[in-house]
């Protein structure tokens, strides 16, 4: 009986270790500049998720419950990964002028794409909810974590993502970059080793926008992307998911898509889109 008990104890310890490592891997944190975490949402096999063409920015605070993402019901898969049944996100603590600066900055990030950025909750399904406010410790995350989102390399329908504005003292620039990263996770985008892109963990090297560049995925070091590809082009990926904004000039200009292999494949982008 004694050897059998030892085997049982060893198996239980192994299970605990595996579960702990899985949790750490799912909710990794980084210092400011690469601060987000993400959680893989549950999937219904055989169904292709649809892209959300509306992003709702919530500043007034709200209570969320754990479950499959449903922005209309304030339900978030992130809470299940964080071992939270419910969480109450407090209102954004900054002034109205700061909020307006944040909203304008965020709209500029997504200006090339067919997506509406709104501040009033839509009446129907089909939008990403961005909960802005509070600290990451509400979800048991490190104090330096500025955002979290569901992510598995594909579109997450009706996703709920978080921007912990308290972690950056309501700094609008960092909030804007974080919101861009977390919402793009909900569209299936991975992290990139490209300092000018919102999907990066690298230190800032100027204003960030979704770059029309083939970049290696990764946080501090390069790796293959979640979808198995060697590189990611965040601009083209969002364009494929969302399409061009209908008010963008129809004229196009060619630019070089330069990746690690120094390829020079012409890519069409809107003529008035900065590069």
Structure description:
With 275 residues, the chain is an alpha/beta fold. The protein has a single domain, classed as 3-Layer(aba) Sandwich (Collagenase (Catalytic Domain)), CATH 3.40.390. Helix content is 25%, strand content 20%. The chain contains 5 helices and 14 strands. The protein has helices at 2-26, 77-81, 96-109, 172-186, 234-242, and strands at residues 36-39, 54-58, 62-66, 75-76, 86-89, 116-118, 128-132, 147-150, 160-163, 215-218, 222-223, 231-232, 252-257, 265-270. The strands form 4 sheets. It has a 6-stranded mixed β-sheet with strand order 1-8-9-7-2-6. The longest helix has 25 residues, at 2-26. Mean pLDDT is 80; it is low at 1-34 and 250-275.
Question: Can you describe this structure in just a few lines?
Answer:
This protein is an alpha/beta fold and 275 residues long.
User: What's the overall average pLDDT, rounded?
Assistant: 80
- Summarize the amount of helix as a percent range: 10-25%
CATH architecture: 3-Layer(aba) Sandwich
SS elements, strand count:
14
| CATH topology group | Collagenase (Catalytic Domain)
Low-confidence stretches are 1-34, 250-275
Radius of gyration, whole Å: 20 Å
- Find the structural class using helix and strand composition: alpha/beta
- Order of the strands making up the biggest sheet: 1-8-9-7-2-6
What features would you highlight for this structure?
275 residues; disordered C terminus; 3-stranded mixed sheet; Collagenase (Catalytic Domain); alpha/beta; 6-stranded mixed sheet; 25% helix; 20% strand
């Amino acid at each position: 009986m004694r050897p059998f008990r030892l085997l049982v104890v060893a198996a239980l310890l192994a299970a605990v270790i595996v579960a702990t490592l899985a949790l750490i891997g799912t909710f990794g944190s980084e210092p400011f500049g690469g601060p987000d975490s993400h959680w893989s949402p549950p999937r219904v096999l055989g169904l292709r998720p649809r892209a959300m063409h509306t992003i709702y920015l919530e500043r007034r605070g709200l209570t969320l419950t754990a479950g499959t993402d449903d922005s209309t019901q304030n339900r978030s898969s992130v809470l299940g990964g964080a071992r939270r049944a419910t969480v109450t996100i407090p209102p954004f603590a900054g002034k109205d002028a700061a909020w307006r600066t944040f909203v304008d900055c965020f709209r500029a990030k997504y200006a090339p794409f067919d997506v509406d950025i709104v501040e009033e909750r839509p009446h129907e399904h089909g939008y990403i909810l961005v909960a802005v406010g509070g600290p990451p410790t509400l979800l048991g995350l490190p104090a330096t974590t500025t955002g979290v989102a569901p992510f598995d390399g594909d579109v997450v329908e009706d996703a709920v993502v978080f921007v912990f504005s308290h972690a950056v003292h309501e700094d609008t620039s960092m909030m804007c970059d974080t919101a861009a990263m977390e919402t793009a996770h909900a569209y299936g985008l991975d992290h990139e080793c490209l300092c000018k892109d919102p999907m990066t963990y690298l230190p800032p090297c100027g204003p960030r926008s979704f770059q029309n560049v083939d970049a290696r995925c990764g946080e501090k070091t390069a790796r293959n992307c979640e979808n198995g590809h060697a590189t990611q082009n965040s601009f083209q990926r969002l364009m494929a998911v969302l399409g061009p904004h209908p008010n963008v000039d129809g004229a196009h200009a060619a630019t070089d898509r330069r990746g690690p292999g120094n390829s020079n494949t012409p890519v069409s982008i809107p003529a008035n889109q900065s590069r």
